[in-house]
Amino acid sequence: MDNVVFRSFKQGDYETACKWWEWWWKGETGIEKEILPNDENCYVIEHEGIPVFMGFLFLGGNAPIGYLTWIVSNPDYKGPNRKKLMRLFITNTEFKAKQQGVKFMFTVCGDKYLRQTHKDLRWFVDESRPSYEAFKYI
Question: For residue 86, what are the contacts with CB-CB under 8 A and spacing of at least 6?
Fold first, then answer.
């Protein structure tokens, strides 16, 4: 796929994530910046300069564990490659986590598309729980 960039946060990305959360969460405010990991572990995937997905990787301090959370998408992006970009976002985040020594990742994916994407990427998704927890050894 051409013109795709996967990167860490830069100035203005947090504010964009908050706007997206507010849209998806029907007016609820976003996650406070102080609660999020440092910008190097906050990720964005863009297509043709347009941010499409963002998410946050928390690293375990005493164990090689990563928690990918609060994935949010651009509600205005309707491109036909949206699902491919979601897959790329997750696989690129897995790669970045592995580079940092992570061997086990987990997430919570209540959205049906996000849940299916994790399944397609060989994450184990526990559908017996209402939060749809998912994990993968990388």
Answer: 53, 73, 113, 114, 117
d(C-alpha 33, C-alpha 38), whole Å: 9
pLDDT the model gives residue 131? 66
d(CA 136, CA 106): 6
Q: Which fold has domain 4-102?
A: Aminopeptidase (3.40.630)
Q: Is 16 helix (H, G, I), strand (E, B) or coil?
A: helix
Give residue-wise pLDDT tens across range 62-94: 889 999 999 999 999 999 999 999 999 999 999
Q: Domain residue spans in the chain?
A: 4-102
Q: Each residue of 100-127: b (16+ CB within 10 Å) or e?
A: eebeebebbbeeeebbebbeeeebebee
